Amino acid sequence: MNALKFITCGSVDDGKSTLIGRLLVDTKAVLQDQLAGVQRSGETDLALLTDGLSAEREQGITIDVAYRYFNTEARKFIIGDTPGHEQYTRNMVTAASSADAAVVLVDAIKLDWANPNLQLLPQTRRHSLLVKLLRVPSVVFAINKLDAVANPAMAFQNIAGALNQFAQEAGINIAAMVPVSALKGWNVVTTDNNDQPDWCGYTGPSLLSILEDLPVIPAETDVAFSFPVQWVEKPSAPTLVASRTALPPEGAAAAPWGGPAAAHHDSGVTTQGRRVFWGRVATGSIEPGQTIAVFPSGQTAVVSQVLSATRQPQNKAAGHSAGLVLDREVDVSRGDWLLSEHGSPEGQRQLSTTIAWMDDEPLVAGRLYWALHGHRWVKVKVLRVVHRLNVNTLAEEEATELPPNAIGHVTLALQEPLATLPFAQSRILGALVLVDTASHTTSGAVLVN
Fold first, then answer.
1. How large a percentage of the chain has pLDDT more than 90?
2. Is 59 in contact with 85 (CB distance < 8 Å)?
3. For residue range 386-422, what is the model confidence (pLDDT) as tens digits?
4. Residue 287 and residue 227: Cα distance in Å, rounded?
5. Distance between CA atoms of residues 216 and 123, nearest Å
6. CA distance linking residue 337 with residue 297, whole number of Å
7. Residue 22 in contact with residue 46, Cβ under 8 Å?
8. Which residues of 281-306 are buried (b: 16+ CB within 10 A; e: fewer)?
């Protein structure tokens, strides 16, 4: 099976770093000297396995996204430990944008677990909504710290009921819901919970077993071909390379310096005098003979070669890097898009978007930003803040601005057209990043509606 890239998210101190530490330790992905370095007062502090920044260790919080790797007999995993603090929501969005799954942790002891009508924490709701907006296909709710409540079965039942109701209102499809104790390891890697196999009245699989069966995001091969140009390789003269082992053919002229005859060594491309356009296939697939259009110039050409990273001719599909050689010289620069001649999106100068705002300065109408789409930069102007999403009630409220960490619908005007699709159709063609023109800080994650 393909490697699963998943994130852990949720509110502050819900146990995200501890859960990842437990996964790493119980799957034997941590060396003994690493364990020795995370001892506190004779006890192993699992959270320190992912909290690498000194500020994180001093404050006991996660600030930046920490990636860790482990594998089982069934699968390989890439974990992103995301911060729970509201002020670091931007880091969580960054990690979720490329994740196959999300494990949303819920801390049972922070909730009125004995109340069947309990209220979830705002950050739990916010992160769950962001996961949905970013089209993370699999959402797993892990209800943590149930070992610390008086009635674990009641707490699990009431919290699960609140999560199901919220998910139904928000349109979130729940892949699984599991009670866990990250600290003790119950239901994390195995269901052998200190001789309590039906702990909390739960008889399903462990969290790790659930993760082993989750699907990865398929490449967007059902969308027309698109290719953001990242680097243009100019043609160069063939390089003379002397072979140390091969002898020249019989009758061949000797090399000027008396050694074996020099051999021409090239990629098979440079001798044609053609430029190679390198990048990663965003959607669809490409093979020689296909006609492509250059965006935004509109010029067309036929693909004569598709190269792998080792310069071998090889057809490429979405998600794979490639070098493209065209049958004729056309003006293509870094930031341009190579698109299928038919079925590709047309350029848009005005976009209706959903924005997760990350800047400390609020988003207001009239402000100018840089927008990054693939490798293409264009200036954008905020025409209107349509409304803001209330993360507690899920209502769309009238608004004139988006404060930090808010989510809302915004209309943008572009100085130059962009070839976009709705984010619901393509995670790549439907996503942009807004960057402040003065400070060059990332200001917002944009999803095209």
1. 60
2. no
3. 999 887 677 899 999 999 888 899 999 999 999 999 9
4. 13
5. 26
6. 10
7. yes
8. bbbbbbeeebebbbbbeebebebebb
